[in-house]
Amino acid sequence: MRAWVLVTLCCFASVTAQDELEARNDTVMSSNERVSTPLVLLEVRKAFGVVSPRDRDHNILKVLLEEHRPLVNVTQWELQMNGESYAFTDDDPMQTELEFGAELTDTDEIIITATNDKNVFLGAVLAVLEIRDMKSRVARVGGKYDSAMSSLRVATGKLEQVQVEDKECKEENSPCYYLLTQLPENVPRCVDIERQQDLGVVRHCDDSITSFREIPERVILNLSGDVLTVEANFTTSPSKVEVVVFDTKEPSNVFSPEGYECRVKGEPRQMSHVCHQQLTGGKDLAGISVLVVSLDREGFVLESRIDVYEGKGISENSSNKGVIVGAVIGVLCAIALIAGIFVYVKGKKETTSRSTQSRASNKYEKTATTEPPPAQEEA
Question: Can you give the pTM of this predicted structure?
Fold first, then answer.
């Protein structure tokens, strides 16, 4: 009996939920005229807008619909999400790709409608699904994107991994830095979301990549043993700073600890920032490159800068060359020592040479040759 009651309640709940969903669809689809074309939502993608004042904000929402019957005389599309409405104007009756000036935030449903110039509904879809921020962050660092060579920071967020073409950033290794190498222009991160009532799957993707912003002033470094101290002036106060120290000739050789965090000295969240990092190697390198990255509390990259710093010498045509304070003192001391040895040896050689010449001169004076007597004339 109890089992029968439970089954009855479950069936009743399922029917009730289905009826409610259909009723809501009817409400959406019958404001002015009964909708003749139901639409199917396949994919939602968030991306950066071209004119965004802060391009780390996702202010473009791209929607992909399943192919449908022609929506004759369609002129306007509308997206409703979290109580807000967004419009997209397009008169293509077969349109399946829509783009709205909206931020895709956490939501439990998305409503999309298509109307004509008389505001008559031509098509609609109500997608009840759970969309949540993946917390995945991808940013250009050290320089602008170049198809031949660039650098990228990838944080997986809630994802187990992020694929960067043939490269894979796993959650346990996040954040991942890809330095001075060939990288793709796009790094989509996608998950499949089940719609309620087994109405199919909607693909949720994040295509956003934070573009490069440079730290305006050269970063000052001080290397004492294995401890690197970093002094940087940011235009925006960061919540966190990461530093990646790597071999200039072999960027895959990284000498910073896991996580790359540069621990703050003094008051945090200041425009003028001082932090330090315990390196894992690289003291004997001819030169190292240092990437400094500032982040906000949501994990977005604010600014970054990459420079080459001289240790025992670096090629003259390297850009952004600098000198590590601790290293240059050692170099100067070494130069001074070498110069002193050179002067000492040279002075000793000159003294020895003069002494030898003096002894040789005395020797030849003592054994001076005498000219033969002049020949006598014959009488």
Answer: 0.72
